[in-house]
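User: I'm putting together notes for a lab meeting next week and I want to include a structural view of one of the chains we've been expressing. I don't have a solved structure, so I'd like a prediction I can at least talk through. The sequence is below, exactly as it appears in our construct file.
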Amino acid sequence: MAKHLFDLYRPMPLEIICYQCQQCAEKALKAMYVYLNIPGGIPRTHDLSLLMDQMHNSISISDQLYDFADQLTPFGIAARYPNNLNFDEFRTKQAIDAAEAIFVWVKTHIV
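Assistant: Thanks for the context. Below is the predicted structure for the 111-residue chain, given as structure tokens.
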């Protein structure tokens, strides 16, 4: 959805695109959490780095993925507090790329 909105909608709904990117990464990471069968259930958090921290003993996670997670996490609250973040086309494209990287990483491990 984020790519579709970025490519086709004008004016671009930057806040919505970035929020969708965070949601994509969050759902992918939570799927990985379930796949790894980590005890205690899925954490109730939107903090992507925290999710990865709780998985790092079960799977190798690169520093770059942590960077992507840190970049996307603030967008989880963007729908509620959009004035707290600065949105522009460049940053939005980076969010799409970060979400895609996390999604692809998860997809390569969940067979």
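A couple of points you could mention at the meeting. The first helix runs from residue 2 to 8. The mean pLDDT is 91.

User: Perfect, that's what I needed.
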